[in-house]
Write a structure and sequence with these properties.
Blueprint (H helix, E strand, L loop, with lengths): L2 E8 L10 H16 L3 E6 L8 E6 L2 E6 L8 E9 L3 H15 L4 E6 L10 H7 L5
Length: 134
């Protein structure tokens, strides 16, 4: 079954209110339902980079570790979910349900490839898996 990584974006420089009790209850119900169905693999959110985030880079054989916050970051991944969905359409439906609860925003969906996805039976199955949308 294909696996999808779904995530929301935000701007870390814009303060936001903590979620309401009602929103937390509705999100909790959604998470519980999708976990019990076996569709939700994992979910969570990221702490702002000012509270422990870092960037690790390698250039010319030298590692550099830079602590946050990252003022140059234009997009911040906020909440995320890793799900098993039958196909892209089901992943979209799950994302729509999430956005309906939060009331506004945008989420991005990316298919995740794992070790089992590198064992293509033939060139046709590889082309099908990597077929661009359009």
């Amino acid at each position: 079954m294909p696996r999808y990584f779904m995530y929301t974006l935000g701007d870390e420089s814009i303060p936001f209110e903590p979620p309401s009790d009602q929103l937390m209850e509705e999100m909790g119900a959604l998470v519980q339902r999708t976990m019990e169905s076996g569709k939700m693999v994992a979910t969570g959110g990221f702490v702002p980079s000012a509270y422990g985030g870092c960037l690790v880079s390698l250039k010319d054989g030298e590692f550099t570790v830079t602590d946050g916050p990252f003022s140059e970051a234009k997009e911040l991944v906020g909440g995320w979910a890793l799900v098993d969905a039958a196909d892209r359409d089901e992943a979209i439906a799950m994302t729509k349900e999430f956005l309906s609860i939060v009331g506004a925003g945008e989420s991005r969906i990316r298919q995740v490839l794992g070790p089992e996805d590198n064992q293509w039976e033939n060139d046709e199955s590889r082309e099908q898996l990597l077929k661009p949308l359009g």
